[in-house]
Amino acid sequence: MNRDQIEGGLRHLRGRGRTALGAVTGRPRQQIDGAVDQVAGALQHGYGRARERADGLHRDGSQFIDEARTRGRALAGDVQDRAEDLRRRGRGYRDEAVRRGRDIVARADDNRGTTLLMVAAAAFATGWLMRRTR
Question: Where on the tree of life does the source sit, at the highest rank (predicted)?
Fold first, then answer.
């Protein structure tokens, strides 16, 4: 409960009392002032309830935003970790391919005659397979 709800409730009760007292004593002015206080008290109490509700919604919205921000940061961190892991694995694959390529070049260099024969055989086979048949 906030201040407006308390003050509105008290003003409403005070207005009811004044209205009743005016009715008992036969004073219409006091009855009218009491009725005005009743309405004003009810309005102030309603304003206090609305303000309390708005504060609650604001608080809930702030918590929701904070939670979303926290989850977003955690997700971004996970994505960065995953990206770094993929980069590391990609570098490993690249290094392995370079190493194997160098091994093949070294073997070809050590066995030049065999390499030349294999390249010639591959070229012949390719030419033979791509020839036109009538």
Answer: Bacteria
Please classify residue 133 by burial: count the beta carbons closer than 10 Å to its beta carbon, then call 0-12 exposed, 13-18 middle and 19+ buried.
Answer: exposed
Closest among 49, 46, 24 to 34, alpha carbons compared? 24
Q: For residue range 39-79, what is the model confidence (pLDDT) as tens digits?
A: 999 999 999 999 999 999 999 999 999 999 999 999 999 99
For residue 15, what are the CA distances in angstroms to 5, 9, 24, 26, 30? 15, 10, 14, 16, 9
- The number of folded domains in the chain is 1
Q: What pTM was estimated for this model as a whole? A: 0.54
Kindly provide the b/e burial profile for residues 15-49, where b requires at least 16 CB atoms within 10 angstroms of the residue's own CB.
beebbeebeeeeeeebbeebeebbeebeebbeebe
